[in-house]
């Protein structure tokens, strides 16, 4: 560190989550929309059974995705001026949130650890003690979803 300033290094963070039991809980839809709306959230990687998708946004109750296994013809990258479009899905697709597999990873990209004066909260918080398994069946407040404890970069409220 020079002159009291911390090095500003970018970091890519993948946070594995489960959005329900055997299938995706529709109660998480608002949470997923909020996460995808964050400036630092670049995507959610997940899909449905035996298929992987890159979710980049949403429209109403559907997620906008690109297929990670999109195939195309072989490209000779050594040829000058080859089309970059050959590497990408020609169009994004939509899938109902309820069809998404509950196991996924939320992906964040933090260019620096600094904010520009925005109201923000830390991404993760490390606390002393032991973890506790929640018993949601006997919980008096069943409508409240578990929240992420946020540090490691700062994110605006959604």
TrEMBL record:
The GO cellular component terms are: cytoplasm
Q: Which reaction does it catalyse?
A: [protein]-C-terminal L-amino acid-glycyl-phosphatidylethanolamide + H2O = [protein]-C-terminal L-amino acid-glycine + a 1,2-diacyl-sn-glycero-3-phosphoethanolamine
Q: Where in the cell is it found?
A: Cytoplasm
Keyword hit for Transport: yes
Its principal location? cytoplasm
Q: Which InterPro entries does this entry report, sorted A to Z?
A: Papain-like_cys_pep_sf, Peptidase_C54, Peptidase_C54_cat
> What the protein does?
Cysteine protease that plays a key role in autophagy by mediating both proteolytic activation and delipidation of ATG8 family proteins.
Q: What is this protein called?
A: Cysteine protease
Q: Which organism is it from?
A: Amazona collaria (yellow-billed parrot)
